[in-house]
Amino acid sequence: MTTPDKAARRALGTCAVLMVGALGLTACSSSANAKDGDDKGGDSARTSAAKIVISAKDGSSGASINSTGVKVSDGELTDVRMTVAGTGQAVPGAISANGSSWKPKEQLERGTKYEISAKAKAKDADGKTIAARSSFTTVTPENSFIGTYTPDNGTTVGVGMPVSFTFDKVISDKKAVQSGITVTSSSGQKVVGHWFGGQRLDFRPEEYWKAGSKVTMKIDLDGVEGANGVHGVQKKTVTFTIGRSQVSTVDVNTQTMTVTRDGKTLKSVPISAGSAQFPTYNGQMVISEKLVQTRMNSQTVNLADAYDIPDVPHAMRLTTSGTFLHGNYWYNKANPPFGQQGTSHGCVGLQDVRGAQGDTTAKWFYDNSIVGDVVIVKNSPDKSVAPDNGLNGWNMPWSEWTAGSTV
Question: May I ask which residue range the UniProt record assigns to the signal sequence (predicted)?
């Protein structure tokens, strides 16, 4: 997942996330264009038609972190320098091939003061040099919002993977924000958004994505007011690919999991689902994270000191609340073997060995799974998983899903 600040970049260096954008500004000139100091008195009455415009007005605050730049009319930029005020740290940028504009190579930081100075050569017969400068501050984190999102740009995901945004501020104008995000598929499937509360917005089609399709997400939240005085700072296009179709079905009655790819059964393997005391959720769940090894501590899921395993192998997250499909090397040999009895605390266990090595059932499934693959659990005595517990909106009827859209 990604965020526009360097400290928060992934964008969705974390999930995500990232995403870029800016607070909209009216185009305006910075300080008045002026001739260089070497102009002679005899030319002082002559005015060039060339004009430099710095998008962030001198002395302004709330400037864009994404679209701040320099343009020139009837002239050609010859030199643009941008620095972080007070430190002199240079901000890399590039003048366009035709010399008409300049922009930073990377998005700016929020809540930071910058200085720009620019020079250009006029295209008129005199070819005079003009100059402009601006000192401004970018929009602050307090007055802006960002959304971390998944999937990331350029990734390949399973057919169950929704587009999911989590915003860092509560959104009161949901229609304005949802209108700033469009998700389309090369398959032609209709994609609809659904709000889970005031900070999460997911998108999906009615049925699973078509295998092999390309999905495009256009984020245009530049200047969108999501709450009173709080504006978006993201503007980006993200594309990802839907891989092969893999849906695995866990049958708690038979303690087996059948793995189906593109409509054909790959393998049926024994599992150990949740015990009678801690049953596994029913429903359609999406793999949202893959970890070769991870620590699992029962205290994080309010089960006191039931377990603390530092190196659970081949773990694949199915819910936010802590349901995983994972390898199990500590299985009590006094219990019936895998495939005969559920003994877990709600997870789905596969036979494995310590160290995540070896030719095991868990390793095979891990190696053959990608984020976005679907795992369906049926015949469990527990309730169905909540649609917002993980990326599991498929458990919501389509009519209810569309009712949660604001556009």
Answer: 1-34
